[in-house]
Amino acid sequence: KYDALWVMGGPMDVWQEREHPWLVTEKKAIRDWVGAGKPYLGVCLGHQLLGDALGGRVGPGTAPEVGILSVAMTEAGRADPLFQGLPATKRCLQWHGAAVLEPPPGAVVLAGSKVCAVQAMRVGRCAYGLQYHVEATADTVPEWGCVPEYEASLEAVQGAGALRRFGDETARHLPALNAAARTLYDNFAAIVRASR
């Protein structure tokens, strides 16, 4: 009865099925959903789950990406309906150590960064994964900082006091982040309508 499936982030990794057995069920649900040709949007962990569930390879990235960092569209990304009206290079909120190292068969890479080659991908005509976060609000960094795994990963990359600095940096960029998110959400809604 649903028009689209959104799968968001979390502190766990796709390979931690023993610790989080629900990941097995979630990956099957993703395979079934995308296999039926239905619209999908995965963010961070949701992006990695899309890659893993459909036969790609996910693992620790070459280095963690944490901060407001640049992501560049590929030629395919610049032409994709999800990114219409967005700049070819943009600043995005990143907070991850794992990455899609090899996209699933048939996937199209839509964006990358210096550290993570698969920042965005499309599988089929309407299943999308984004490694970076588009859902930032004024509360995102403080709330995520309450998750011990997130705070530890942040301080490992940026040192003591990183949570406050990251929160300040995010606040400075929030209007642009939110404007880009609104464009992307509207584009995804149009993709969903067209898939009906």
Major sheet attributes: 7 strands, mixed
Written as H for each helix and E for each strand, in order along the chain, the element string is EHEHEHEEEEHHH
Q: Mean of the pLDDT scores?
A: 96
Quaternary = single chain
Spans with pLDDT under 50 lasting ≥5 residues?
none
Residues in helix, %? 25-40%
> Strand order, biggest sheet?
1-2-7-6-5-3-4
Radius of gyration: 16 Å
How many individual helices?
Answer: 6
Q: What share of the residues does DSSP label as strand, in percent?
A: 25-35%
Estimated structural class: alpha/beta
What does this structure look like?
There is one protein chain. This protein is an alpha/beta fold. It has helices at residues 22-35, 45-53, 75-79, 140-144, 148-158, 162-195; strands spanning 5-7, 40-43, 57-73, 89-102, 108-112, 120-123, 127-130. It has a seven-stranded mixed beta sheet with strand order 1-2-7-6-5-3-4. A hairpin with a 7-residue loop joins strand 5 and strand 6 (120-123). Helix 1 (22-35) crosses helix 2 (45-53). It is globular and about 45 Å long. The N and C termini lie close together (11 Å). The model has no long low-confidence stretch (mean pLDDT 96).
